Amino acid sequence: MLSKRIIPCLDVREGKTTKGIKFENNVDIGDPVEMAKFYYEAGADELVFYDITASHEKRGIMIDVVRRVAETIFIPFSVGGGIRTKEDMREVLLAGAEKISVNSAAVKNPEIISEGAKAFGSQCVVLGMDVKQVEKSDKIPSGYEIVINGGRTYMGMDALAWAKRGQELGAGEICLNSIDADGTREGYELTLTELISENVDIPVIASGGAGKPEHLADVLTQGKADAALIASMTHYGHYTVAEIKSFLDSAGIKVRMSW
Amino acid sequence: MIAIVDYDAGNLTSVARAMAHLGYDCDITKDETRIRNAERVIFPGVGAAGSAMASLRRLGLDRAIQDTFASGKPLLGICLGTQIIMGFSEEDGGTDCLGVVDGRTRLFSNKMTDAAGAHLKIPHMGWNRIRLSGSHPVLDGIADRDEFYFVHSYYPDPDHEDQVIGRTEHGIAFASVIGTANLIATQFHPEKSGRPGLTLLKNFCEWTPC
Known about the structure:
The complex is a heterodimer of chains A (259) and B (210).
Chain A: E1 5-13, E2 16-21, E3 24-30, H1 32-42, E4 47-51, H2 59-72, E5 77-80, H3 86-94, E6 99-102, H4 104-108, H5 111-120, E7 125-133, E8 144-148, E9 153-158, H6 159-169, E10 173-178, H7 190-199, E11 204-207, H8 213-221, E12 227-230, H9 232-235, H10 241-250
Chain B: E1 2-5, H1 13-21, E2 26-29, H2 32-37, E3 40-43, H3 49-59, H4 61-71, E4 75-78, H5 80-84, E5 86-89, E6 95-96, E7 101-107, E8 124-129, E9 131-132, E10 147-152, E11 154-158, E12 164-170, E13 172-180, E14 183-186, H6 194-206
Parallel strand pairs in B: 1-2, 1-3, 3-4, 4-14, 5-7
Antiparallel strand pairs in B: 5-6, 7-11, 8-10, 9-12, 12-13, 13-14
């Protein structure tokens, strides 16, 4: 039986990790390679890096980070942010990432998903989705809308329909981020997570809102997620990965307890 | 020298990086002679059986792998490499493979459910345990509770039960570690499986098959 995965997420800007609270007032908390090693040894099942470097010219810095992370940790990790073309994907995968994640680039150009899946395999392509709750309407029947630019731009796309489309196009996994819950530390968006998990066949990583181990237990059971993303709850030392996993293990959720 | 067989089947640098971390230099090569002259051979791969077999034949490496097995040198199969050492794969409308191990590589049913009745997703992706049916030098130091990283939709199904070293549960108990003579082959990715994976790779590098 597969273990539920606990995945720390590191935001990286110009080669340094940050953690944004609702995408604003980012503060520097360290070197991504050191943090990757720390989490690898602490029992993380996978890592996610988001490159939030604003300028496309500085992407080379991230490639170097990916290469150094790949030499240091021996668990899967994915890289997202700023990946717009098949060549961007190739560069990151060759540098040693297991998966690449596309978010706004896929919203603007859905073909990037199928191109990536065809060239590198579906298992390499993660569809990242930023979602906000809205009034249900003809256009947004699920009541969850796709947003980009950190939640500032509404795309008029229904989140459930987009998740299904992403799967059809060849995404191997969905990383589902609730902008409403992100940074609140009050728990994942369970209704949204369950809705998407129940309606696609590919694994769903829940993201946004983790503040305590109970939140992970909720999203991995009630929310039916296959994996849970965490950030500030471990970055700032409130909890260790081992503490979270022990809690989940005691709650009867299968997690990897030996590393 | 340890050769890693390069046959255009996915990114092979992650295996080489894990080996470098363990202090072993590897030669990622398409060259038949270098593979034949290597002390040990690692046969990894990510992708589909049909194109992988076509590449191997085009590069003349199908015979090199079969001969490596026959020569008695340590041979490690990983993921797709493990699937195509079987006789036949159901992938790509049916693909004749290397036949180092008798048996077939089969597609997981998409109708499998877990004990609680929940639908099991395909690919089988993530961390899972292996249940060892015996001991093997390459699995020294690996405990029942250790987990390994898998990503696959097909699984190897050897004809001879005595060649199955370990099984993993995903709807069915499939063969996740296969071993016979100088061959050891895993469906999971030891290079992405943290400490137990690195232990397995290190054991392989020190293994002298009898």
